[in-house]
Specification:
436 residues, alpha/beta, Rossmann fold, Dihydrodipicolinate Reductase, domain 2, Alpha-Beta Plaits, 11-stranded mixed β-sheet, 6-stranded parallel β-sheet, 35% helix, elongated, binds L-homoserine
Length: 436
């Protein structure tokens, strides 16, 4: 049995997990693939103490991996854009298959990368790019291939979920929890990608492309982060029977496809509301299967390595006939051709939680409900909360019915112009994660 030879570029959190698990589980991997899968060479910038590379060829130059004629599969785990893209395109041109965990690169340059791979008859696999260890790409692309997908909603950033969980459960400050997530290896090298929803949006862009057969369109998606969520909002949401989660939602509606990442209140009884810590989860609503939920570790060394190695194994089984493999985005065209537009955020319809910080005044609440009713917005719950150590102020918390976002925005502008109201009004969307 001729071995399949792998070259790993980068031995950081995911790279070292991949190195260790691939070596540790060699026997079962060979039995499942039909060939031994061996690490021929690794490229690392610095000495690495998380792996014992003593029996492996090591280089400092990642391009040595793409030049090595013995290597069949190049595993890109360096992250980032420019160099990673150059590395992948160079591997493809050398006729090598590629496995990557680089969601930013796939979401933003995947259309070009998959076209190049098709031209050179090689495979590019990226399971680890979305939701770490959860095999969601395989589920969407293969397990659900017979279904029309109505919508999907996911907690797809472990760092963000970890921060919201710790803030809610232990009243820990945001910056403290973020530091801890960085130490644990969950956060991106630039953690604004986690906090501002960019990382989640990369992952959502990829899932939306597979689910709805549209090209990868990161620039059309809407992104809002969690940095403005306060422990007070988490508490008020709990009092109303909700949990706050950072959600990525892709949904087909009459005007096209919604692709949006933002914090959301979810009814506490929903499984998604109870996905905590670094766990990720994705709910998929589809016509034949109905609703399914996939959950597991969304980040971490060996958890993410599990997906990287599954991709290596898939490719190792088909190295001789790559044309027989499942297409990268699940559609026969390397860039799916359906051209439904991405719906602008102002055109979505959902329910809203509003928190308005205002001077205490007996007429204030009436003035706000009058404004909402002028815009035809019904209020399903309203309450006034006193503010600790600030008797002259109150928080008015409002839950609305389902409305168009443009209408809510206009109503919020009018509320912000009321005397005694402190702008900005906090506005968080309320979602059920069902197909609605
Ligand atoms: N920073 C990412 C997260 C890592 O926290 O989910 C996994 O993609």
């Amino acid at each position: 049995m001729k071995p399949v030879k792998v070259g790993i570029c980068g031995l950081g959190t995911v790279g070292s997990g991949t190195f260790n698990v691939l070596n540790r589980n060699q026997d079962i991997i060979a039995a499942r693939v039909g060939h031994p899968v061996i690490i021929e060479q690794v490229a690392v910038r610095h000495d690495n103490h998380a792996c014992d590379t003593s029996g492996t060829m090591v280089t400092r130059d990642i391009f040595d991996i793409t030049r090595n004629p013995d290597i069949d599969i190049v595993v890109e785990l360096i992250g980032g854009y420019e160099t990673a893209k150059e590395l992948i395109l160079s591997a493809i041109e050398q006729g090598k298959h590629v496995v990557t965990a680089n969601k930013a690169l796939i979401a933003e340059h995947g259309n070009e990368i998959f076209k190049a791979a098709k031209k050179h008859n090689v495979l590019v696999a990226y399971e680890a790019a979305v939701a770490g260890g959860i095999p969601i790409i395989k589920c969407l692309r293969e397990g659900l291939a017979a279904n029309r997908i109505h919508s999907l909603a996911g907690i797809i950033n472990g760092t963000g979920n970890y921060i919201l969980t710790e803030m809610g459960d232990k009243q820990r400050p945001f910056s403290d929890v973020l530091k801890e997530a960085q130490t644990l290896g969950y956060a991106e090298s630039d953690p604004t990608f986690d906090i501002e929803g960019i990382d989640a949006c990369h992952k959502l862009t990829i899932m939306a492309s597979i689910a709805f057969g549209i090209p990868l369109q990161f620039n059309q998606a809407y992104t809002e982060g969690i940095s403005l969520i306060t422990p007070l909002d988490i508490q008020y949401a709990e009092e109303l029977g909700y949990r706050i989660k950072h959600l990525g939602i892709a949904r087909r509606q009459e005007k096209g496809i919604e692709i949006r990442v933002h914090p959301a209140l979810i009814p506490a009884s929903k499984p998604m509301a109870n996905i905590n810590g670094v766990l990720n989860a994705i709910v998929v609503n589809s016509d034949a299967l109905g609703q399914t939920l996939y959950t597991g570790p969304g980040a971490g060394s060996e958890a993410t390595a599990s997906s990287v190695i599954a991709d290596i194994m898939d490719i190792a089984r088909t190295t001789q006939s790559p044309e027989a493999a499942v297409p990268a985005l699940g559609h026969i065209d390397e860039v799916p051709r359906f051209s439904e537009p991405v719906v602008p955020i102002e055109q979505i319809k959902t329910r809203y939680y509003l928190r308005i910080h205002a001077e205490n005044h007996p007429d204030r609440m009436n003035a706000m409900t009058d404004i909402l009713s002028t815009y035809g917005i019904n209020v399903t719950a309203i309450s006034q909360k006193s503010v600790a150590n600030k008797e002259q102020y109150a928080d008015i918390v409002i839950e609305t019915g389902r409305f168009n976002e443009a209408v809510i925005n206009r109503a919020i502008d009018s509320i912000e112009s009321l005397t005694g109201v402190q702008a900005p009004v906090t506005r968080i969307r309320i979602e059920t994660t069902d197909s609605e």
